[in-house]
Amino acid sequence: MNETLKTIERRTSLRRYKDVAIKEEDLELLLYAAQRAPTAGNMMLYSILLIRDQHTKDVLSKTCDNQPFIAKAPLVMVFLADVQRWFDYYRVSEVKEFCLRTGLEFRGPNLGDLFISVSDALIAAQNVVIAAESLGIGSCYIGDIMENYETHRELLDLPEYVFPIAMLCLGYYPDDYKPIVRHRFEHQYFVFEEKYHRLNEEELTAMFAQLEASIPQPNKYGAENAAQYTFARKTGAAFSCEMDRSIRKAMENWQGGNPLVDQHV
Ligand SMILES: Cc1cc2nc3c(=O)[nH]c(=O)nc-3n(C[C@H](O)[C@H](O)[C@H](O)COP(=O)(O)O)c2cc1C
To answer: If you take atom 7 of ligand 1, which residue's CA is the nearest one?
Structure first.
């Protein structure tokens, strides 16, 4: 295995950090790794917030589903899907007027722009994760930044066409840390040749056998199997419902509207 693959293999989510700040030269390298990530149309439809203020970290540790380790991370990065910057540039550069003059149809920010900016932001984030690992810096994604849209919008000063799609907690590995390599599903269950293969009951049972064996019995959910247990903990949990609500709220901005009269663009 080469060094890149070894770095990928070594990475695990880190939720306990050495109590030292990230060195500025390491931060520069992390940001360089983000910047060099592929980006649709070379438009860099994302922004990165560097959160080092203790109060902001304290708030995020609560608003992101009460995860206290967030407040203890020396550095938190929020990855924003950012379509605002380009549409601001279009506005100051009179793109609407250009469209009227040339007969080109102007369009405001819509779901396509959102999805491509989400792709950009996540690809940049993952470059940071791998670069961090190569520098002895551990990381953990926080998906709950998608919750509490109104609170996060105010806390982070987000304009309408910016959506916080991912957050990373970052910090050096503690000296006594022993990585836990977590199980993944075998290729046969998620890699298919040419066309999608929907798993049948037998394949699903085989795929989840190891997970099934790891579920505590009895458990606090009264779950009889891994599916019931995972649904209670994740898919059907309160944080998932809040994430749905929050994203729907944010999406109210992304309707496209009548682009020629849309005041926000
Ligand atoms: C999109 C995304 C969101 C995640 N959100 C959280 C989170 O809110 N809290 C947390 O502790 N871990 C979070 N994780 C980390 C996962 O739990 C972790 O990647 C998974 O359990 C596999 O473990 P590993 O990364 O150590 O291999 C998230 C990971 C991803 C990719």
So the answer is: 142
Please answer whether residues 63 and 152 qualify as being in contact, where contact means their C-beta atoms are separated by less than 8 angstroms: yes
Per-residue tens of pLDDT for the chain, all 265 residues: 999 999 999 999 999 999 999 999 999 999 999 999 999 999 999 999 999 999 999 999 999 999 999 999 999 999 999 999 999 999 999 999 999 999 999 999 999 999 999 999 999 999 999 999 999 999 999 999 999 999 999 999 999 999 999 999 999 999 999 989 999 999 999 999 999 999 999 999 999 999 999 999 999 999 999 999 999 999 999 999 999 999 999 999 887 654 444 555 5
N-to-C CA span, the chain: 49
pTM for the model:
0.95
Give me the domains of the chain, ranges plus CATH numbers.
Answer: 3-182 (3.40.109.10)
Which phi and psi (to 5°) does residue 92 adopt? -70, -20
Probe target for ligand 1 pocket from 9, 17, 142, with the most ligand atoms within 8 Å of CB: 142
Paired tokens of 9: 């293999």
